[in-house]
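BUG-334 | component: ligand-complex export | severity: low

The export step for PMV jobs runs without errors, but we want the raw record kept on the ticket for reference. Input record follows.
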Amino acid sequence: LGNGGSDRFLYLLAMPAIFAKAPGKIILLGEHAVVYGQPAIAVPVNQVQAKAMVTPNPQNQPGLIILDAPQIHLLADLNGLPSNHPLAAAVRLTLAHIGAAHPPALTIRVTSTIPIAGGLGSGAAVSVAIIRALSDYLGSPLPDDQVSGLAYEVEKIHHTHPSGVDNTVITRAKPVYFQKGLPIEVFDIRTPFTIVIGDTGVAAQTSDVVQDVRCRYESEPEKYARIFNSIGELTCLAYHAITDGENHGLGGMMNANHELLVEMGVSSPELNALVQAARQAGAAGAKLSGAGRGGNMIALVNPEHAETVSAALKTAGAVNTIITTIQTQIGMIE
Ligand code: PMV
């Protein structure tokens, strides 16, 4: 290397496959209000993840990039995909950002165990995995803020007013206290705690729910401003509780946040049933997580109650549950 472009090209042809992974996420408190400038707390969920694998295709024409995402039945030439296709956008934005005008022939295979449209950040995780794998492969690994910034651009395709919380927590793979326009605060969990995630199995598009909240806010600005402020106050209290290692009050704060989300109109009978079931089975608190109307809810539990709450959620209709310990993550996921 070091003596010209052709050597670099040969080097890329000889490159082995490179992959990157990104975790799912849950929002502990603050969804929707975060779109209107309030803080949110989000944490990674490493039990589910998206993976992007970049493999050289020296037999193909240089520049031919194949996107292969079997779970969404996608096997296509990048050039044939529309500009608003989120996977294609992640690739194009990365190539443009690193100035790779003539990339070698590649296949990018994308797989994910994060449920789609479930509020666990599947879209942002796929983007982050693609951006990392592709930039690494092309010899220009990007720092977190740039990875997150590019993923945010893709988020804008999913919905027009993303707060940026998903791409931030998923890129950092650490707990974050996020407020639009303020420096990102990655924080330590003093006392780990256990969350059971329950999936309603109902797919809900974040963009539709966010848009609906905007319409409601525009027709009743005072009511919605009050709800957003109350959620912001709860989130702030919860952040201090978590960073002080005083988690006792957290369940009550999650319950109160859920009631405000109900008032906002973003819950659903399925979510309310799971929230109720978790509380009855001994959870300290429970709420919907993410955009709502479907997707996932979360319950704060004593570790010894986790299996009971998980079973109660399944009896109440959850199609899947995940038990996860929220703690400070050291380094990237395995
Ligand atoms: O449903 P999810 O995981 O995409 O979470 C959306 C969170 C919202 O606050 C509703 C939207 C946003 O951009 O923050």
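Assignee comment: Attached the raw record above. The two ends are 31 Å apart (CA to CA).
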